[in-house]
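Usage

Read records sequentially. Each one opens with the input sequence:
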Amino acid sequence: MIKKGMKKSVILLVLAALFVILGACSNDGGHSNMDHSGSSEVPEGLKEAENPKYKTGSKVIIESDHMEGMKGAEATIVGAYDTTVYTISYTPTDGGEKIENHKWVIHEEIQDAGDEPFKPGSEVTINAEHMEGMDGVTAEIDSVEATTVYMVDFTTTDGEKVTNHKWVTESELSPAK
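and closes with the structure output:
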């Protein structure tokens, strides 16, 4: 028979074990605790957009879901740049699972990019650290689009404050009401 004082200890121990087990079973590829904020620095050669739809300081709604809690969040435009964006697939340098169709890497974040856009299927080396294990990785270009990209500050729908998030395309934003 468990004594009254021990019963409380056993319950606490079971709850602690359950918390550890549930935390280890997270199905997000280990990215829920990742800091999605970035530096305000932009790659060399990236030019500010001359006539962006959303000007610096504008409030917008994010319509994409690159990360949990992003879709529907109100954001502030930090910067707007005209460039070519790519979705890429790669295996992280830290040995994680292969990432498919990562949005977005810009032309200026690709080693030895030159002036012409890459074509789908091209293998490139990434010079960006949007996610752990990305910098220096060899990736395959999945898609290519010439557009305006934005750096944004926002708070996720679950309360995480994100600053200088790179990158959101013009088509992934709508005006804040």
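Summary fields computed downstream for this record:
- The chain is about 10% helix and 35% strand.
- The radius of gyration is 21 Å.
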